[in-house]
UniProtKB/TrEMBL annotation:
It holds the Pfam family Ferritin. This is DNA starvation/stationary phase protection protein. Residues 168-187 are annotated as: Disordered. Belongs to the Dps family. Residues 25-162 form the Ferritin/DPS domain. Residues 173-187 have a biased composition (Basic and acidic residues). Transmembrane segments: none annotated.
Length: 187
């Protein structure tokens, strides 16, 4: 079901049709960020094991920053003349990925799965940046700033999964469960 997201008005200097494309792109970013926020809190609540405190405390600043990112995206949607669909129903109906699949687990297992989550978020964000760059530099700039922060968060996660020789434990993992198993092998 394709919805026409062309607003009745938008910011000066952007055509309404381009604003509609940006709104559609940003809706998916909003869903990704809302989903990531909930996934990070899920990890925060369900992490166990000897690395509990370190991971528990590492995740909360990521949660806070991701929430701020979602707010920035929602406000950009509104500025462009769109509606920021931030409800759980809209997220579930429109997302193209599955729910996070790891429950209560060892800290390093969660980090293995979270590494794959971040990879998916970052890959789709890079595609969104490319598309936004063709339409609007302000939206592109917003997304680039978020890219830097999310890449740093993945680096924090990967630091727990990397050997001294530079090998990433999850590099061959294709699913969250595989990545969690490979991470748990390190723990």
């Amino acid at each position: 079901m394709t919805q026409d997201l062309t607003p009745k008005y938008t910011v000066p200097g952007i055509e309404r049709e381009a604003a509609g494309r940006l709104i559609g792109l940003l809706r998916m970013r909003l869903h990704a960020l809302n989903d990531l926020h909930l996934t990070l809190k899920h990890v925060h609540w369900n992490v166990v094991g000897p690395h509990f405190v370190a991971i528990h405390e590492m995740i909360d600043p990521q949660v806070d920053r991701v929430r701020d990112m979602a707010d920035d995206v929602a406000e950009r949607i509104a500025a462009l003349g769109g509606v920021a669909q931030g409800t759980p129903g809209a997220l579930v109906a429109e997302r193209t990925w599955d729910d996070y699949s790891i429950g209560r687990a060892d800290a390093i297992a969660h980090l293995g799965a979270l590494d794959l989550v971040y990879t998916g978020v970052l890959e789709s964000l890079r595609a969104a940046i490319k598309e936004a760059g063709d339409l609007d530099t302000a939206t592109e700039d917003l997304l680039i700033g978020q890219l830097r922060d999310l890449e740093q968060f993945q680096w924090f996660v990967r630091a727990h999964l990397e050997s001294a020789g530079g090998t990433l434990a999850t590099e061959q993992a294709r699913t969250e469960e595989e990545a969690a198993d490979k991470g748990a092998e390190l723990g």
